[in-house]
Amino acid sequence: xxxxxxxxxxxxxxxxxxxxxxxxxxxxxxxxxxxxxxxxxxxxxxxxxxxxxxxxxxxxxxxxxxxxxxxxxxxxxxxxxxxxxxxxxxxxxxxxxxxxxxxxxxxxxxxxxxxxxxxxxxxxxxxxxxxxxxxxxxxxxxxxxxxxxxxxxxxxxxxxxxxxxxxxxxxxxxxxxxxx
Length: 180
Known about the structure:
Layout (H helix, E strand, L loop, with lengths): L36 H28 L4 H8 L3 H13 L3 E2 L7 E2 L1 H23 L4 H11 L5 H29 L1
Antiparallel strand pairs: 1-2
Helix pairs in contact: 1-4, 2-3, 4-5, 4-6
């Protein structure tokens, strides 16, 4: 899977948590850089909200046909005021379009980000499950871990999942042959 963020057509304003030249979920503190890892973690945290919101908008819209502010407020257990402030930032940064009292719509860039976030989440979740973590715990942990994995780490997780999936298939086939 490709986790590298492609250049997006929109322009970010101010110091948007997600820039056009940096992969989502990565920071400048990755190996080989002298950047402070604590500063990098703070930058990662700043992009989490945007990523979580676009992922939620995509999921809610796919399930119910549209996403409203109240849907997001329920999903994140926050007030409508909090959601409106976040949506205003997402709109400013080119991830969503919304009119007063209208549904929240992802822009093309927002759709791309939501898909990358979904794939990243699935990778982390499947990796945790492959380690034997319970489904409930894996889901909760994946929500936090997914924002802090570099593309290199995600690719290693994918390799681990693929290796363990092929081992599981071989083991199951072997058991079924012995039974027959």
